[in-house]
Design a protein that fits this description.
Length: about 220
């Protein structure tokens, strides 16, 4: 009987040992699982293929913006050139329209002389004077004005001296005493300088004499 109790007691101890080992093995498996979870790395960054695709898309966007900006600039340049050209043509058209009545008056004067076969020069001269006055009015409206010359002090900015003559009486030197060809301004710019005759100081008798030769 005593032996049978000992056998049962040893069986109970063995079962307790197995239960304890099983519990330890479960605990270790649980601990190991938590350690593995803690050791897992964070989510990796996007692969290089995705980064390349993003960069390519951004590059395409910037390229599209650049092409649009260049196209807008080219269109603006063309519009500006067209506007300037149209402005110049419009100015020319207005000038020609203003000159046409002058041509009409000249043609009427010539036709009148031919039809009436008159020898009167005075009538023709009157018509020419009126037409010349009308033409000057047209030029002034286009900012074309005649340069003052006769009696003015010679100014190389506006006058071109083509002849000279000695100063006479009260005429001072460098005074314009004759106008060979009229000059004109376009606004403030010289369209054509006036060709003039300029008074020069008289040479004194001393300067007229030939120098004496010395031996």
């Amino acid at each position: 009987m005593a032996r049978s109790r000992n056998v049962e007691q040893s069986k109970d101890e063995d079962s307790h040992i197995h239960v304890a080992e099983s519990a330890q093995s479960q605990d270790s498996s649980v601990d190991g699982g938590e350690g593995d979870l803690a050791a897992e790395p964070s989510a990796p960054e996007a692969p290089w293929e995705e980064q390349l695709a993003t960069a390519t898309q951004e590059a395409e966007t910037y390229k599209d913006r650049f092409l649009r900006a260049r196209a807008d600039l080219e269109n603006y340049r063309k519009r500006s050139i067209q506007s300037i050209t149209e402005g110049v043509r419009d100015g020319q058209r207005q000038t020609f329209e203003a000159i046409l009545p002058v041509i009409d008056n000249l043609e009427r004067a010539v036709d009148y002389q031919e039809q009436h076969k008159t020898d009167s020069v005075e009538d023709l001269l009157t018509g020419v004077r009126m037409t010349l006055w009308q033409l000057r009015e047209v030029l002034e409206r286009q900012e074309v004005k005649r340069i003052a010359a006769l009696g003015e002090t010679f100014d190389p900015r506006y006058h071109e001296a083509v002849e000279v003559q000695p100063a006479d009486g009260e005429v001072e030197a460098d005074t314009v005493v004759g106008e060979i060809q009229a000059g004109y301004l376009f606004g403030d710019a010289v369209l054509r300088p006036a060709k003039v005759r300029v008074a020069q100081p008289r040479r004194t008798a001393a300067t007229d004499e030939e120098p004496l030769e010395t031996t």
